[in-house]
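Quick one:
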Amino acid sequence: MTTTRTVHVSGASDDLVDFTGAIHDEFYNYGRYPGEGEFEFNDGTVLRVHLDDSDGDGIWRVELLSSGGPNSTIVLYRAPVAGLDRDFTDLAVVSGDFTAVTARNDGGRGPRTVYVPGFEPDGADL
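Output:
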């Protein structure tokens, strides 16, 4: 039996990407390092989150780079998002049978994986 989990992904400030829901954490994104802002779920879903300041407004953009398995659903909402208290960010709603997400480069410090509670491998550095 597959359990569907949902997480919301959005920009949180000038250098943070926020995950809420089944995975609740923040990742640094300074926009200076290769792979920064790329998030890979262990179901195959890959998102890229970056700050687009091309028009001077500083809007967080969320792009789908790869969709996950057959149980994955990804919905992207473009800023401003009705009902979201931040008008400076897109919002991705990712649903699927994932149990972890890996930031490919968390603020220039390399990859970091965060797990759905209860799915941490033995010895995981939490």
